[in-house]
Amino acid sequence: MNEKDYKPKQLLTKREKEVFELLVQDRTTKEIAEELFISEKTVRNHISNAMQKLGVKGRSQAVVELLRMGELKL
């Protein structure tokens, strides 16, 4: 494998990233669920899973960390 062919594994799943992109747009859990056609519980699970991966204790800490890592844009 060439060095330029190497792609680092993304930290978040596509869906987790979609949830956080909507979260930083000041959307509620209910609004995110409706937009993505999933349940509110599933939205909360995606947020929780991402927080666990990041080793943070809250949504706002997760957003700050994702911004710092370049995984999320404002």
Automatic annotation (TrEMBL):
Superkingdom of the source species: Bacteria
Keyword annotations: Capsid protein, DNA-binding, Transcription, Transcription regulation, Virion
Residue ranges occupied by any HTH luxR-type domain in the UniProt entry: 5-70
InterPro entries: Sig_transdc_resp-reg_C-effctor, Tscrpt_reg_LuxR_C, WH-like_DNA-bd_sf
One Gene Ontology molecular-function label: DNA binding
Segments crossing the lipid bilayer: none
Pfam families: GerE
One GO BP annotation of this record: regulation of DNA-templated transcription
Name of the protein in its database record: LuxR family transcriptional regulator of spore coat protein
Organism this protein belongs to: Salirhabdus euzebyi
